[in-house]
TrEMBL record:
InterPro entries in UniProt: Ig_E-set, MoCF_OxRdtse_dimer, Mopterin_OxRdtase_euk, OxRdtase_Mopterin-bd_dom, OxRdtase_Mopterin-bd_sf
Entry keyword Oxidoreductase: yes
Occurrences of domain Oxidoreductase molybdopterin-binding (ranges): 59-230
Stretches the record annotates as Disordered: 1-23
Positions of the Moybdenum cofactor oxidoreductase dimerisation domain: 268-368
SUPFAM superfamilies: E set domains (SSF81296), Oxidoreductase molybdopterin-binding domain (SSF56524)
Molecular function, one GO term: molybdopterin cofactor binding
Lineage summary: Bacteria, Pseudomonadati, Pseudomonadota, Gammaproteobacteria, Acidiferrobacterales
Protein name according to UniProt: Sulfite oxidase
Length: 370
């Protein structure tokens, strides 16, 4: 397949705009869901998600990379292009930091109409302890030239999206790329990266939605024009109609999630809870802002009461919260919402965009108390 353009070769459900009002899921969505799994919500128990529970999002195929011949190439508008082995990268300064990462499409499958894509409900978030070397040090080593405006990250994975044959590529402004918390990570929870999480090396940009953290890094290039590739202009936009380019998706919007209480019904996942005192718990996060407040509603979002926040354990990770609830017999819709330090509060109505990005509407958990 050598053509860059392949219009019409891959018809998709939902037609040209890829939207459906069908409450059943299309085969294409199930196919994606089986490749890209979410974190089971009981995984919210762990401040650092066990690696095998970490959510996963892979646009194309997981590339097979022979680390003996692999090199990270740093080039473009730099004074000294570099080609580094993994061992050479490991000799650079080492940082380990817990980082919460969330997919920008989290909440997509709750939307009406629903964009046909990876059908996340709310489980596309996890926290890992990432180890690597700060990107800034390597950019300094290579020496950015003055005309560089962005840093472009190219993955080794390749596929077709939006009728365009491409490597997965995303860019960041020089200022964002030079922030001290931005890492080139080669380990996750103390182990080398698993193939699906970007082995041998991935970018890690705390605070941003996950698409920014490019896996399977091949090249890093300083570029002199803003990069206009598909993953920047064709998707990851808050666009509301076909002719609205929309703002780019950047930092994670504020969200709280609760560990579903009690025990689940196998098929519906409705929770069975014993009447009496219940301690509800979960975690909340907000991009680069702090979580200011978490609130619980036991009546489907009509009235709210405050929850207690745990101490933050990392500036780049979610924060635990707890809330006491006196469960009375009957059916209840538990909702949780967070507010960030800039006053942004999670809505109870959906936040609809045509690609289903950043829908941080409050989580709702159906509970039967006996
Ligand atoms: N090269 C490459 N990097 C990628 C992706 C990809 O498909 N290819 N997916 C991105 C998206 S959309 C997300 S949400 C995160 C998911 O990282 P994880 O699978 O390690 O949780 O990786 C990002 N980095
Ligand atoms: Mo994502």
């Amino acid at each position: 397949m050598d053509a860059r353009r392949s219009a019409g070769r891959f018809p998709r459900p939902g037609g040209e705009d890829g939207l459906t009002t069908d409450d059943r899921f299309h085969r294409e969505e199930v196919q994606l869901a089986n490749r890209n799994r979410g974190m089971p919500l009981e995984g919210l128990r762990y401040p650092v998600t066990p690696s095998g529970m970490h959510y996963l999002l892979v646009h194309f195929d997981i590339p097979h990379i022979d680390v003996r011949s692999w090199r990270l190439r740093i080039g473009g508008a730099v004074r000294l292009p570099l080609a580094l082995t993994l061992d050479e990268l490991k000799k650079r300064p080492v940082v380990t930091v817990p980082v919460t990462m969330e997919c920008a499409g989290n909440g997509r499958a709750l939307l009406e109409p629903r964009p046909v894509s990876q059908p996340w409900l709310v489980e596309a978030v996890s926290t890992a302890e990432w180890t690597g070397t700060p990107l800034r040090g390597l950019l300094d080593e290579a020496g950015l030239r003055n005309e560089a405006v962005e840093i472009l990250f190219t993955g080794l994975d390749r596929g077709v999206q939006g009728d365009e044959v491409q490597h997965y590529q995303r860019s960041l402004s020089v200022a964002e790329a030079r922030r001290e918390e931005v890492l080139l990570a080669y380990a996750m929870n103390g182990r080398p990266l698993e193939p699906q999480h970007g082995f041998p090396l991935r970018l890690l940009v705390p605070g941003w939605y996950g698409m920014t953290s490019v896996k399977w890094l091949d090249r890093i290039d300083a570029v002199v024009e803003p990069f206009r590739g598909y993953q920047m202009t064709g998707t990851y936009r808050y666009s509301r109609s076909a002719d609205d380019p929309g703002d780019p998706v950047t930092l994670m919007r504020v969200r709280a999630l609760m560990i579903p209480p009690g025990i689940p019904d196998f098929r519906t996942r409705v929770r069975l809870v014993a009447a009496g005192a219940v301690t509800l718990a979960g975690r909340a996060w907000a991009g680069r802002a702090a979580v200011a407040r978490v609130e619980l509603s036991t009546d489907g979002g009509d009235t709210w009461s405050p929850c207690a926040l745990d101490e933050p354990f990392s500036p780049h990770a979610w924060r635990g919260w707890t809330c006491e609830w006196n469960a009375t017999p009957g059916r209840h819709a538990l909702c949780v919402r967070a507010t960030d330090s800039e006053g942004n509060v999670q809505p109870t109505a959906q936040y609809w965009t045509r690609q289903g990005m950043g829908n941080n509407m409050a989580q709702r958990v159906e509970v039967l108390v006996e």
